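Input:
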Amino acid sequence: MNIKVLHSWLLEYLDTKATPPQIQQYISLCGPSVESVEKIQNDWLYDIEITSNRIDTVSVVGIAREISTILNRFEIPALFKKPILLEPSSPNNILPFTIKDNGKLTKRLMAIVMDNITVSKSPDFITKRLEAAGIRSLSNIVDITNYVMLEIGHPTHVFDYDRIKTNTFILRHANKGEKITTLDKKTHDLYETDIIIDDGTGRIIDFPGIMGTANSVVTDKTKRIVFFIESNNPQAIRRSSMKHGIRTMAASINEKNPHPALVQDALFRGIELYQTYAKAEIASPVYDLYPNPLTSKKISIDIPFIHKKIGVPMDKKQIISILTDLQFEVKTKQDNLEITIPTFRYFDMYEKEDIIEEIARIYGYHNIPGQLPPLAYIQQPKDIEQIFNYQNVIKTYLKHQTWYETMNYSAYSKLLLSAFDLKETDHLHITNTISEDIKYLRVSIIPSLLKNIKENGGFSTDLKLFEIAKTYKPQKASLPEERFKLSLVTKGSFLSLKGLIEALLKELHVEKYSFTLSSHPFFSSTVQAHLLIENVVVGVLGKVKNSIMEHMQLTDSVFAAEFDFEKLIEKARLMPIYKPYNPYAAIQLDLTTPLNQSYAKIVQIAKESAPHITQITLKDTYKDNVTLHLIFSSPNRNYTEKEALIELEKIKNNILV
Amino acid sequence: MEIDVTNEKKKAIDFIVNSSSLSELIKTETELLGRNGLINSLLKQLKNIIPEKRKTVGININALKQEVITLINQKKQLLSQKIDDKNIDVTMPGTSIKTGTLHPITIAITEISSIFSKLGFIRMSYPEVEWEYLAFDTLNMPKTHPARDDFETTFVNGEPHPTYGKMILTPHTSSGQIREMWRLKKPPIRMINIGKCYRPNWDATHTPMFHQFEGLCVDTDINITHLKGALDYFAKEYFGENTQTRLRPHHFQFTEPSFEVDISCTMCQGTGILRQSRDSGTSQDDLKVKCKICKSGWLELGGTGMVHPNVLISGGIDPIKYSGWAFGFGIERVIMMKYGVDDIRNYYSGDMRFLSQF
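Output:
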């Protein structure tokens, strides 16, 4: 959360000649991050980020304290002026009230009644400071509650005494079915985990720590008030605030656990302001219910441990000086320090590492030298190494074959998956997605790629896209199976896609592969094939079927392929198996033959008919014929053309049979 | 017997002059200067000349040899010039070769992995669909802690686990820290986890899916100096050797101390000011404009810190014997800082006008 504080307010608790830009610079280096400092007329406004562990700095007093510690480290004199808070005088007459917290729902509860209230506009300085902080100025009696919260760092509340006829305040859990109408005129159905204040008749008069209620809030007719501050259970506050969506500054502070000692500081300060600016008269003793006062906390730490964790051999004197600057009490016994934590740091200092952070940040991170971590050999698991290595190899290869890499979101819409005849129930989905477009975790990359083709309508007729990404297959009683897929789409042709895949397999030096007709639901039943590597199905390619094309409103044919990435690279090699080349002459002949059976069958016949064939490649196709280029050779002599022609005849005959 | 050097010289010159191509000239060269060529055969015949005249004839033959060599070289040059093509327009584009492109995230991941692999860090990959327990509880963020607010979570409809809680899409690569600790069981640990993360935000600077890279270094005696050193090393390698880094205090539940790390602004070189020349000849008149992309010369890189002892304990590692540092940065962010690619939504739009640039 952020707070906005005027420099003039800060100077009530801080004596320094440092300029606001200087303060911004030094504080951000060693403490809370001052995101900006803006000149406003003859004042300055700080915008400071408060981290959830440093709720002690969410106030003007807290920030002033932090600034004085840090500036002094940079040898800029700065004095923290602790607020002087006096116990209020005894009341002249007493207005009664009763507070009950039998369930021990608060850690501390303080209250006081004040009479003779004069409701009016707040004095200028209060209005200015509140509005700079982003809080609306309403009337003096409301403003003082907020002013104290910003100054001291603990939320406070004020009731109209006369609107609570029973003068009773009972803290309890809400019951099922109860409702509350908060100050902003909204009504909420309460949960049993919510803590509320009941006036003894069952009537709810406050949502403590979160927001006041319409029925007990002060008005301009208010004459008598109950100034009421409770230290709430931070988890209960957070739960109630989040569940109801009421994110007031009070709730944001209370859920971060301000120390109960601040309750008294806030009460005394508020009383002083009511007396000065609302003509208030004390009408009760100070009520203080604090059954279990927090005792002081001590952390023990050794100097060698400090050196080890920070990596700088700071001398003992310097360490102690930093800790005392932070108002930590230090008792030394040789190399051991026993550190007493001040109340305002109670809830964020737990162990030795927290002390390390305090010492290191005040010493200055800029003063700590840097060195590289020592080298150590960790073996990367081979399967992971292979995946990353081949992802690079394949992506780079595809890039140079004029394909474009794309990355899509990991989920698609119901509309898209139904265009592909996929079932919602076969997918995991995001239950709180911010868009219906990204709801179902992908089981195939192809739908996203087709969406890319569609959306790039105007770009090119020869769009070639690929993506390597995970798909998510739901598994019973376990996280989904996440597997990388390589997917491609092109508007070219089946053979151009197949040719690219064959070239890729060559690049990977995969030798034993084959294609067989498949029956995958994404593709036309006659134009699709499985890729098998050593008889294991690795993926599929084909022409996207018409029904999908219609759903996607695409007209030009689209061809797609998808492979299980790990299976694809399983037989990949960096270098093929070396075959010593044949030093003897080879005979090269062409053979044109009708495609009276599948290409694979013809090649098989040729190989079986001619034992001296060492290579067969497709040279040309024309109508129903193919021209094969054949190479004949012998490993131990020069093969002759005469012999080759004899084998060629055999092949011709066997094909035509 | 006589050797008529003058006559031989005339014949040789004729041959050379009449060579109309380099290959003819080379033939002529062999015929005249080769092992069995004219000059050598003349030299062989010297023994048949009477001794008194041998010296003179020998000198003349060698003079002829030198002349032939010179003439051949001259002719070679002449012929080479003639073979040159007519003048071409060297500004005409060459035969075009098309290529596709890699996604900028892929390029960044390769660069980042390589930078850290030099330090011995291995790149790992961990689940994107994860249990709440590994994304929060083991990282010192119990359900009730307000710090959990900062990670608005993307929930998945898988069946919750009795111990590990609800199934989510991980909001950060930090869940990989615990998994790596469980995998290795014992330091040394040197991990870079690069992966997709998910948070329900969608605007010019946030996408519901983005990439992070997480560094984790655990060993005996790891301290703040090692963190500083590693961050400084990365910043200089990735952004340039003049890049400065600085740490500022911050708070994360899973590190103690926690920091935010800034680098000196790549735009204004860390000065906070951009100078725009006014063409007046001196830099004194330059317009000084506040650099728009940084905060007083610094750009925020990301979060980092010393691994919290509770996190080590969740990872099954003794926090007394071992310590470590960790960081997590957004990849889209570092690309933006280095190359100026701005609207983050471009990365996952599949728009060719974006992809084809790389």
